[in-house]
Amino acid sequence: MRNEEVGTRNERKELVPSSQFLVPNKKLWGGRFEKSTDEMINAFQASIDFDKRMYREDIEGSIAHAKMLAAQKIISDDDAQKICAGLEKILAKIDAGEFEFSVALEDIHMNVEKALTDSIGAAGGRLHTARSRNDQVALDTHLYMRRQVREIQKLILDLQAALVKAAEKNSDVIFPGYTHLQRAQPILFAHHLLAYFSMLQRDFDRFEGVHARADIMPLGAGALAGTTFPIDRNFVARELNFSAIYSNSLDAVSDRDYLLEFLSAASILMVHLSRLSEEIILWCSREFSFVELDDAHCTGSSMMPQKKNPDVPELVRGKAGRVFGHLMALLTTVKALPLAYNKDLQEDKEGVFDALDTVKFSLAVFAQIINGMKIRKDNMRRAVEEDFSNATDLADYLVKKNLPFRQAHEVAGKIVHACIERGVYLKDLTLDEFKKFSPLFEEDIHEAIKPETCVAARNSQGGTSYRQVEIQIDLAHKWLEKNL
Predict the structure, then answer these.
(1) What burial class does residue 75 get, using C-beta atoms within 10 Å of its C-beta: 0-12 exposed, 13-18 middle, 19+ buried?
(2) Catalytic residue of the set 76, 243, 285, 301
(3) What pLDDT does 40 receive?
(4) Which of 64, 65, 155, 420 is the most exposed place for a label (fewest CB within 10 A)?
(5) Which of 3-7, 219-223, 241-245 has the lowest mean pLDDT?
(6) Which of 330-357 are b and which e, b meaning 16 or more Cβ less than 10 Å from the residue's Cβ?
(7) CA 48/CA 55 separation, integer angstroms
(8) Is 370 within 8 Å of 163 (Cβ atoms)?
(9) Domains assigned to the chain
(10) Does the pLDDT of residue 345 top 70, yes or no?
């Protein structure tokens, strides 16, 4: 059917603006709409309450974008200068706490752009040329995550430094190593602390990977398909110190892999802090009495005056589940989203921001806990003398006398059983009593099963011997010097 025929059969509305289209409190995107947004809908979809923390990144990205538009002759140099100066003033106002954010303007991007337009007039309306909120929010989040990851890595290094300091200070303290929460073999307490140093080293490296994925620039992707304007994405990347640019516009606005990687790395880090929390909580108990936390890092009971509760490690242990939940929530959010941008992706930020805050706070308080922790050396020593954690060394002694290990293991097991029946320990047996189980025992058996001997003998690479722990401490210092 020809257009003329359509015109004759249907009464056409004249395509001219009329007063019925004037929307009160019109949004910056409101040209298409005849009604203002319902107040409840405004509140439901607004993100300003949480994404305003990205104001610095939003302004930084807009300044770079304005400079590029001017360099490409898309806007005038005069307009670009007005935009940049106006944005700098807005930044100063927000820094000073003098900026009023509006829920009606939905997010940090619209709040800043509206303030800019109100301040400098028509030039402010040209800032959004050749970009969408889709690639703008992606840019802000990339910039924000880059900075936050570096802050987390610094806090990891601070906690590692605290662990190394405690290890050096207690380098000769012997401690019962456990498996199945049963005393297993004597080890150096420093060796135990340095195990967490190694875990945190892997965490640091994982966050390095997160930083690499956050260090890719999405701006220039537009809403999803790029733009008709002759933009220079490399210009903006240089201005913002990005190492790479997204090669596909659809991917640029819909990618949240780097946030998933962050939440994954954060979750693994919180696993490590939770495990350390659990151990410190146990060590503080009367049943262990291996450490005592500084009074400044504990709380008391409102009813029981004798209590000194390790609340901080308990809270860190509890907050681990919170971070895990944010990872699962974002995985669930993105798992079935079609390309490209969907409003669901607004749900990425609250969980990520909360995980960031939780991880940073947990790392900071843990460094204080380790630095203030008092080691009860005598109780640790008593623990390794009043158990059978030297039974492996008893078996190894016989193996070195040429008895097959399985037979040596059986002999050692029978000796331990006999000691338990009598209520004594291996150190309490005489040479004659040892010989009843094997003629291979000689005068040196008592020296062989001393805790110091057991520790010193484990000199294999990465082991708990004094020498190996010294090497581990030296490597730890080199790692810290390289990354601090």
Answers:
(1) buried
(2) 301
(3) 60
(4) 420
(5) 3-7
(6) beebbeeeeebbbeebbbbbebbbbbbe
(7) 10
(8) yes
(9) 30-125 (1.10.275.10), 133-229+240-382 (1.20.200.10), 385-483 (1.10.40.30)
(10) yes
d(CA 86, CA 112): 10
In whole angstroms, give the CA distance from residue 341 to residue 225.
Answer: 11
Per residue in 77-116, pLDDT tens? Answer: 999 999 999 999 999 999 999 999 999 898 999 999 999 9
Among candidates 131, 134, 132, 190, which has minimal Cα distance to 163?
A: 190
Residue 124's pLDDT band (cuts 50, 70, 90): very high
Q: Look-up: residue for tokens 């780097």?
A: 258
Cα torsion angle, 448, 450, 456, 462, sign: positive
Q: Are strands 182-188 and 174-179 parallel, antiparallel or unpaired?
A: antiparallel
* Backbone dihedral angles phi then psi of residue 31, each to the nearest 5 degrees: -60, -30
Mean pLDDT, residues 458-476 taken together: 97
pLDDT of residue 18 exceeding 50: no
The model carries a pTM of 0.90
Q: Which amino acid would we find at residue 324? A: F
User: Catalytic annotation on 301?
Assistant: yes
Asked whether the beta carbons of 218 and 190 are under 8 A apart, the reply is no
CA–CA distance, 278 with 272 (Å, rounded to integer): 10
The HSE-up count of residue 367 (CA atoms within 13 Å, CB side) is 16
Give the mean pLDDT of 358-377.
96
Average confidence score pLDDT of the chain: 92
Per-residue pLDDT, 67: 98
- What's the rounded Cα separation, in Å, for the pair 408 and 403? 6
Residue 35 confidence (pLDDT): 63
The residue with greater pLDDT, 248 or 36, is 248
Q: How many alpha carbons fall within 13 Å on the CB side of residue 10?
A: 10
What's the burial of 62, exposed, middle or buried (CB within 10 Å: 0-12/13-18/19+)? Answer: buried
* CA of residue 159 relative to chain centroid, distance: 13
Is 180 in the active site?
A: yes
**Per-residue pLDDT, 14:** 54
Is the confidence at residue 22, as pLDDT, over 60? Answer: no
Work out the average pLDDT over 11-15: 52
